[in-house]
Amino acid sequence: MEPRAAAGSVGIVTPRTQRFEQPLELACGRTLPGYDIVYETYGTLNADCSNAVLICHALSGNAHAAGYHSPADRKPGWWDNCIGPGKPIDTSRFFVVSLNNIGGCAGSTGPHSVNPATGRIWGPDFPVVRVRDWVATQRRLADLLGIERWAAVVGGSLGGMQAMRWAIDHPERVRHCVVIAAALKLSAQNLAFNEIARKAIVADPQFHDGWFLEHGTLPRQGLAIARMIGHVTYLSDELMGDKFGRELRSGSFAPGSEADAEFQVQSYLRYQGDQFADNFDANTYLLMTRALDYFDLARDFGDDPVEAFRRARARFLVVSFSSDWRFSPRRSREIVDALLAAHRDVSYVEIEANEGHDAFLLPIPRYHDALQRYMEQVHADLAPRSVADAR
Amino acid sequence: MEPRAAAGSVGIVTPRTQRFEQPLELACGRTLPGYDIVYETYGTLNADCSNAVLICHALSGNAHAAGYHSPADRKPGWWDNCIGPGKPIDTSRFFVVSLNNIGGCAGSTGPHSVNPATGRIWGPDFPVVRVRDWVATQRRLADLLGIERWAAVVGGSLGGMQAMRWAIDHPERVRHCVVIAAALKLSAQNLAFNEIARKAIVADPQFHDGWFLEHGTLPRQGLAIARMIGHVTYLSDELMGDKFGRELRSGSFAPGSEADAEFQVQSYLRYQGDQFADNFDANTYLLMTRALDYFDLARDFGDDPVEAFRRARARFLVVSFSSDWRFSPRRSREIVDALLAAHRDVSYVEIEANEGHDAFLLPIPRYHDALQRYMEQVHADLAPRSVADAR
What we know:
- The structure is a homodimer.
- By secondary structure, chain A is an alpha/beta fold.
- The first copy, chain A, is about 35% helix and about 15% strand.
- The first copy, chain A, has ten helices and twelve strands.
- In chain A, the strands form three sheets. The first copy, chain A, has an eight-stranded mixed beta sheet with strand order 1-4-8-5-9-10-11-12, sandwiched between helices. A two-stranded antiparallel sheet of chain A has the order 2-3. In chain A, strands 6-7 form a two-stranded parallel ribbon.
- The first copy, chain A, is globular.
- The N and C termini of chain A lie far apart (about 50 Å).
- The N terminus of chain A is likely disordered.
- The interface between A and B is large, with 55 and 54 residues.
């Protein structure tokens, strides 16, 4: 069976590239001249354009959230288990929009693009981008697609931060906000891990102060280390124990050279690191982790998240996972507490799961059930609201 | 007031270097020719040599556990808050021995020493050393000092692993075994962090496959990254939050270049990494983390720690700290459960502390109280046992 024929799949999808000529003023004070956004859509926009769902991606995500780009593709989009006909984000009901954020390295304008002012690749000169800038570009895309109000803005991790920012910055344009495995801001420990990952990249002599493309090279070692650090923090201690334990690759102790990976977990991590290093832009990694660092929902509101959420009009679903120690349930409960104090409508689900932060990408039954039920309610809300809006 | 005059201090101490000419067969199958051990002693060995306490150091430790090397020293030894007259390990009662393990970089023979077979620095050719090898060298030192049986062998973290190994390998030579913030073996997550730290070191082009000294350089960047990774895992999320939060160094957001550390926690980590990189040998770091990786107390006993502890004759004190996520209380309870199942005499204290794994080095009142009371009992046990032994 070809993948596109699989039940519940959106099938073959074709990414689109949209050029935006109007310059964008960024939060850092610099202005990005015209830029490209690569995006995909799944499902059909209804007549009153009320059934659109925006998917916001996390650190290393891209526009390809569901389906396949060709029949030969072995892997579907990064959230294919969640998006498709009959799936929690049901494309037979919703028109789903997924884009690659600016600063990314999967088609949209980013550090690997050419800076029109110099004719050189942007590289490390690409401006610092913050979550609010992504929301601004997503708003422009919504305008272009004729989407006045999202039925839902959905995101996990850094994507959940974008969803919250949407609800604050454009309250009238978000009906529902789904915030999965996120936080109001990073903890000092989160900041520390990001700092170490960046240090590994900039310390790689192949990084060349960010001009590696001009030097015809890539900081593979640094990127691999950064990814390995990230990867350990995405998984739970328990899951790593279940998955690898202390299994030796050879079955017995035979201390070898540093080049040998003796434990299964070592070779797994090395593989993850090397794969990533071949496919991700180092400047984008720096940019994305700094966007994470800078995100602080309450900062413009006297450090009071309740004050921030008073601006929101959306209904919220907040989801956390028991073994997630990167964005623990405690961080999600902070979001929920602030929403309740701001008299917002919020549902909260804490999912018992062994998979750590990575759980948000996995088809865990109780998680997908909760998301499916919530999205059914989002769909049920569409009709009466549309009537009300038309008055 | 000069430090040596401080109450409770052992004052000025002079490290001694002991040459061992007899080659040592290592667990890896290789043989280390004659080697040096640097050690310090505090307090006075009693007439029947029954009051000796061995201190086993952790990953980056050394022989200088207490006191000062000169009146000009600004910092005392690494466990000075715990060792001295009137302190938990009371030098007015005990004769305390602290040594630098082989493979270390603080005086004892290690990768920075000259390999007599080649006349070159050992560098990466230094043999793989395991916890049992350290115990073997410590036993030789005990023989030389006339210590037939330790009143106690004490260690935290990797030091606790040495203490347990002593109790198993030389049951008749250990009266009490004090195991602080340790584990029967590393978890997959522990292994993963060690792997990433080593990867950072070997990826540093200044590492030169371990021959950096011959190249007149040091892999400072790699070592700094390794230390930063270690450091984050030594601290708790809570402590980092309390200590740094998201405090900005400049007091406001002004996204700068990668060279800038904007958050306090970044500059703190960078400082820690740089300090370490100037003072620690990269080959030793690799060796020490691999000794940690390989340690597995039950491995020779059909993976049954109960079977392992059946060999022990010592009484045990096991201590853990609530916020230690590197060697969590759960890992200490595994030790305690195995000891109980083996019908060993064990006391267990779980200390409520915010400081993570690092807590074992800090003068937390309840921790030091518990240790002091236990060591008082160790001292009280000396006299009757000596009589019994003499029969």
